[in-house]
Amino acid sequence: MYSSITIANYFLRESWKGGVYLTPMKLLKLVYIAHGWYLGYTGNRLIYDPICAWPYGPVIPELYFQINQYGRNPITATVTSGIKLSNEPPLDDSMTEFLNMILEHYNQFSALDLSALTHQKGTPWDWVVRSHSSKQLASRTVRIPEEIIRDYYTKKIKAAENINEQSSVSEEVSCK
């Protein structure tokens, strides 16, 4: 398990290699989405930082408060934090492969597109927003439960697997 900052810095460095600069909103959404997919595939958390349901979307406060000074502008430096990251394991080949797949797929979307994805009906953020008052959400302390995130992404994985199975069955039938 990693800090959101470790994952964010990986995404920043890899994006910069391709000449792409990420805004705070896009970086927050990429880390959140990566965490969700990782939970769905492995059942384990990618990041140990809590994820909260803020009025305008899911947010990782630890990361947000380190990058919010950029506003809507691209982030031009790696993220530093007062927390000690040296106790974390290094990102191994399988983890960087996973993170690269996330980046490859989602980097094509704008920050607003990614935000819209995380706000869709039935998403973990939507579930939490519908089950809490606006006053509770305004406090910015309402967490999105890990099991809700895990279940949501697990369902997405199973749905994709079912589509792939149906597609291969259709190909077999059409080949006969």
Task: Tell me what you see in this structure.
The structure is a single chain. By secondary structure, the chain is mainly alpha-helical. The chain has one domain (4-175). The chain has 8 helices and 2 strands; from the N terminus they run ααββαααααα. Strand 1 (52-54) and strand 2 (57-59) form a beta hairpin. The termini are far apart. Residues 168-176 have low confidence and may be disordered.
Task: Draw up the topology in text.
Layout: H1 4-17, H2 24-42, E1 52-54, E2 57-59, H3 61-67, H4 93-106, H5 111-119, H6 124-130, H7 134-138, H8 146-175
Antiparallel strand pairs: 1-2
Helix pairs in contact: 1-2, 1-4, 2-4, 2-5, 2-8
Key terms:
176 residues; mainly alpha; two-stranded antiparallel ribbon; 8 helices; 2 strands; 60% helix; disordered C terminus
| Overall helicity | 55-70%
Give the tally of β-strands: 2
Q: pLDDT average, as an integer?
A: 89
| DSSP helical segment count | 8
The separation of the N and C termini measures 48 Å
Strand arrangement within the widest β-sheet reads 1-2
Report the major sheet.
Answer: 2 strands, antiparallel
Oligomer: single chain
- Over the alpha carbons, how many angstroms does the gyration radius reach? 17 Å
Q: What pattern of helices and strands is seen along the backbone?
A: HHEEHHHHHH
| Approximate shape | globular
Unreliable residue stretches: 168-176
Number of domains: 1
